[in-house]
Write a structure and sequence with these properties.
Layout lengths: L31 H5 L1 H16 L5 H23 L1 E4 L3 E6 L5 E6 L3 E8 L1 H5 L2 E8 L7 E7 H21 L12 H10 L4 E7 L2 H9 L2 H20 L7 H23 L3 E7 L2 E8 L4 E7 L3 E9 H4 L3 E8 L16 E7 H11 L29 E4 L3 E6 L3 E8 L5 E5 L2 H6 L1 E7 L7 E7 H24 L2
Antiparallel strand pairs: 1-2, 2-3, 4-5, 4-10, 5-6, 7-8, 8-9, 9-10, 11-12, 11-16, 12-13, 14-15, 15-16, 17-18, 18-19
Length: about 475
């Protein structure tokens, strides 16, 4: 794919920016319209092919064919009208067939860039770049679809330019100087190829067993037993909706589990090192492939989850909170974007957690339970609550069915709050809330003695200030 420089715009009287020149730009892959409408095209061909070949096509078949042609024309026009290029301090993407739209994404605001290959795009060797931008709760922008190698080169160029902009406070080149296809490729070459070291691979047998021992499976089995008991008592399947009512539930459960299996398949965690610093790279997917890079400098905390059926096997799950990344589900099959390891031996999960936290061990923090009188406000769950402050981490543990351990580095704590409830005040209790950026990690020390909470609050303020000072000093 080559760049398409063009001459100056025609100058019109009174036009703003008349002296502005057309930038050297790049286009998406010409196969993009085909990838976007592939499933619809296959469905239309499957339903009309025999009629078209046999000369028996009716109004419906010709209508579908006409819809395909109109869609193909619109897709081609959209591809022609979509251009992108990197300027000194931003990525600009111009789109629109009927109305023109221009998205400008500042490179120094980029939090992360993931490479995703949906199944159809993977068949054609294409990929999508998904970008997270500071201040946005969802994906700020994307480029779909590019050849895989071009997507990797563009990602490297954007990240290299972002790091340079953050380090110097300005772009490397004078304002307004564009970087087109050649510029993007040059900066991709300048960035050394990241050195990769595999840290963990998800075992397929362990994944299958973990799905069988999941909460969804347990609830499904209980529902099946309830139906079986009802049928046994009433003696007629028709009284509970019949087979027609059971099969959709079974199919839905099977589809949900298969989506998880396909999303987690081939899950690999690697340590990489590049110009943007140490990071973990996560690859996953059976049909749709996704590559996510987690910069260690942007990690805000970790969450270790241990469902009850897994605990006897010594298994756990690891999630991470990363600045700029949402914790919602990804589009590749229900996989949360925060997941670092869906299931693994607990020792391996803790090793990955220490890597993400750059050293500190959540298990090394001494945890204490709430006082005995907290049973009056939390009679059951209080037995499974504990928390404490270590030299580097604030840690909170909770959960009856699924034990969750939240760990937040002091340097990443945004604020600390003392929250006494109405009934807590009568018992001399309060909560300590450690605030960090939105994500799966939520450290809460619940139902603690009010005096202890005041002491913990002061201590956390001191630890957080000291930790931020060490970070600024580069220790």
């Amino acid at each position: 794919m080559s760049a398409h420089p063009s001459g100056p715009r025609p100058v019109t009287p009174g036009r703003a920016g008349a002296a502005d020149l057309e930038r050297p730009y790049r286009r998406l892959s010409p196969l993009t319209p085909l990838v976007r409408g592939f499933l619809f095209l296959v469905a239309v061909l499957a339903s009309t092919w025999d009629d078209l070949l046999g000369g028996r096509a009716g109004p419906v078949a010709w209508g579908l064919v006409g819809l395909v042609l109109v869609g193909a024309g619109y897709g081609a026009a959209s591809w022609l009208r979509t251009k992108y290029w990197i300027e000194a301090d931003e990525l600009r993407v111009d789109t629109g067939v009927v109305s023109r739209q221009s998205r400008r994404i500042r490179v120094d605001r980029l939090q992360g860039i993931d490479i995703v290959q949906p199944f159809v795009a993977r068949l054609f060797g294409l990929a999508e770049l998904r970008m997270d931008v500071a201040g946005g709760g969802a994906r700020e922008g994307s480029l779909a679809f590019l050849p895989l190698e071009e997507a990797r080169s563009l990602r490297a160029a954007l990240l290299s330019r972002r790091d340079a902009a953050r380090a110097t406070g300005q772009a490397d080149e004078p304002a307004g100087q564009p970087v087109g296809a050649a510029g993007a490729g040059a900066r991709a070459v300048e960035e050394a190829v990241p050195r990769e070291r595999v840290l963990a691979r998800l075992d397929l047998a362990m994944l299958l067993v973990s799905l069988l021992l999941s909460v969804e499976t347990v609830l499904f089995v209980l529902a099946c037993l309830a139906v079986a008991v009802t049928v046994g008592v009433l003696g007629d399947l028709g009284t509970v909706g019949g087979v027609a009512g059971v099969l959709p539930v079974l199919a839905g459960f099977g589809l949900a589990q298969f989506r998880k299996l396909s999303a987690f398949y081939g899950f690999t965690v690697s340590a990489v090192s590049s110009t943007s610093g140490p990071a973990l790279q996560v690859r996953r997917g059976l049909f749709s492939l996704s590559t996510q890079t987690i910069a260690l400098a942007r990690v805000q905390g970790v969450l270790v989850s241990e469902p009850l059926p897994w605990r006897r096997l010594g298994w756990a799950r690891l999630d991470v909170a990363v600045a700029g990344y949402s914790s919602g589900q990804d589009e590749t099959g229900g996989l949360s974007a925060s997941t670092v390891m869906p299931v693994a031996p607990r020792a391996l999960v803790l090793s990955l957690a220490r890597t993400l936290l750059s050293g500190p061990d959540p298990d090394a923090v001494a945890l204490t339970p709430p006082p005995e009188r907290s049973r009056w406000v939390d009679p059951v769950a209080r037995r499974f609550r504990a928390g404490g402050l270590g030299a580097d981490l604030a840690v909170a543990r909770e959960g009856l069915w699924t034990r969750r351990t939240h760990a937040v580095p002091h340097a990443r704590v945004q604020s600390v709050q003392r929250q006494p409830g109405r009934w807590q005040r009568r018992l001399g209790l309060a909560d300590l809330r450690v605030d960090s950026p939105p994500g799966p990690v939520r450290a809460r020390l619940r139902h603690r003695d009010a005096g202890e909470v005041r002491a913990l609050l002061d201590r956390e303020h001191a630890l957080a200030a000291e930790a931020r000072h060490r970070v600024r000093a580069g220790e």
